[in-house]
């Protein structure tokens, strides 16, 4: 089928596009190559895609309303995977308007495009950040998520609500994926594991927040891409057992749903740092700091619903994933 991927030069976007192309799908990749982080890395990802048959790149900002409308009218994709977004919890405290422009304005342009082009299934990136102040573990899609602790999280929750309204009004099949701390080769330089690696090799201290008392459900990129493809191939349907006077936040009477995409194995942050140290063969200098605003002490994904739908559950062990990331990092940066 023809699949339109927004954020195709991004970390997840590139890997998903490669998998779709490998199985014979046609991919239209949309990305504006903004400079939130190193543009050369985005270009390197794109360079892996452009020579492949069936791929076409469109340089476009999803917040460009006329441009997005024209693109959908021309391409009329059967599937859409929206991965374009202004990412990063901490940056949302500094530049909130960037999150509204991309994650809210841009997303409504995607929804409108899907609606008018007759898209069969919209899969869109949400985030584990939507769980906000929740402390019951593991995080379940069936729990309420109305208390975000960052604007980034609020925009992702808004995406889920916006998509639901289009599912209800126009019958658009829409599935939101709450990604949990994605890592791996060609990852995002703004992520902690990436900056940790750079600092450790440079011999400079790494900042460890909440004095190291953090847990994260680190999820390897190959598990993320497998989950995305399996969900894409199973368009959302209405839940016939949905009861409106006892609402289930994970499903709906409309063809809409959300899933956690996580490893279901939370790892202590210090253990993750230890895995990096082992793979690099260098001990990190550590600078312990208090918790940052907008952050949470722990994430832990309940993935039972994902497994029930797709028969798949992420399971890459952190030591294996970190070893693969470090091998890529040393090769790519020549260190």
Report the biggest beta sheet as strand number plus sense, adding barrel if it closes: 7 strands, parallel
Please work out how many helical segments DSSP would assign.
Answer: 10
How much is the average pLDDT? Answer: 95
Please state the overall shape, judged from the principal axes of the Cα atoms: globular
Percent of residues in helices comes to: 40-55%
Instruction: Tell me the strand order in the biggest sheet.
Output: 3-2-1-4-5-6-11
Low-confidence stretches: none
DSSP strand (E) fraction?
15-25%
Total number of strands:
13
Multimeric organization:
single chain
Radius of gyration: 19 Å
Describe the structure.
This protein is an alpha/beta fold. The strands form four sheets. A seven-stranded parallel β-sheet has the order 3-2-1-4-5-6-11, sandwiched between helices. It has a two-stranded parallel ribbon with strand order 7-10. Strand 2, helix 2 and strand 3 form a beta-alpha-beta unit. It is globular. The relative contact order is 0.14.
Briefly summarize what is shown:
The chain has 335 residues and is α/β, with parallel strands linked by helices.
Keywords:
single chain, 335 residues, alpha/beta, 7-stranded parallel beta sheet, two-stranded parallel ribbon, 10 helices, 13 strands, 40% helix, 16% strand, globular
């Amino acid at each position: 089928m023809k699949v339109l991927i927004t954020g195709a030069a991004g970390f997840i976007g590139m890997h998903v596009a490669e998998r779709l192309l490998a199985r014979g799908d046609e991919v239209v990749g949309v990305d504006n190559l903004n400079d939130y982080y190193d543009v050369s890395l985005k270009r390197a990802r794109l360079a892996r895609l452009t020579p492949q048959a069936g791929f076409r790149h469109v340089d476009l900002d999803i917040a460009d309303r006329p441009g997005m409308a024209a693109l959908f009218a021309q391409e009329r994709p059967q599937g859409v995977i929206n991965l374009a977004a202004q990412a990063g919890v901490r940056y949302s405290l500094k530049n909130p308007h960037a999150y509204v422009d991309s994650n809210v304005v841009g997303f409504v342009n995607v929804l409108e495009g899907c609606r008018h082009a007759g898209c069969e299934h919209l899969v869109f990136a949400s985030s584990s950040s939507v769980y906000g102040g929740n402390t019951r573990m593991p995080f379940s899609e069936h729990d309420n998520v109305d208390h975000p602790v960052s604007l980034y999280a609020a925009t992702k929750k808004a995406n889920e609500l916006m998509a639901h309204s289009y599912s209800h009004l126009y019958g658009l099949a829409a599935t939101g994926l709450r990604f949990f701390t994605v890592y791996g080769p060609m990852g995002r330089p703004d992520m902690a594991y990436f900056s940790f690696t750079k600092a450790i090799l440079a011999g400079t201290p790494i900042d460890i927040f909440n004095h190291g008392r953090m847990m994260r459900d680190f999820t390897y990129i190959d598990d993320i891409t497998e989950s995305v493809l399996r969900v894409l191939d199973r368009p959302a349907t209405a839940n016939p057992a949905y009861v409106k006077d006892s609402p289930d936040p994970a499903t709906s009477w409309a063809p809409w749903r959300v899933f956690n995409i996580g490893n279901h194995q939370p790892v202590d942050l210090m253990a993750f740092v230890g895995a990096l140290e082992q793979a690099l063969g260098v001990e990190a200098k550590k600078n312990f700091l208090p918790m940052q605003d907008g952050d949470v002490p722990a994430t832990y994904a309940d993935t039972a619903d994902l497994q029930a739908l797709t028969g798949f559950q992420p399971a890459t062990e952190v030591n294996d994933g970190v070893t693969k990331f470090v091998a890529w990092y040393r090769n790519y940066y020549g260190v």
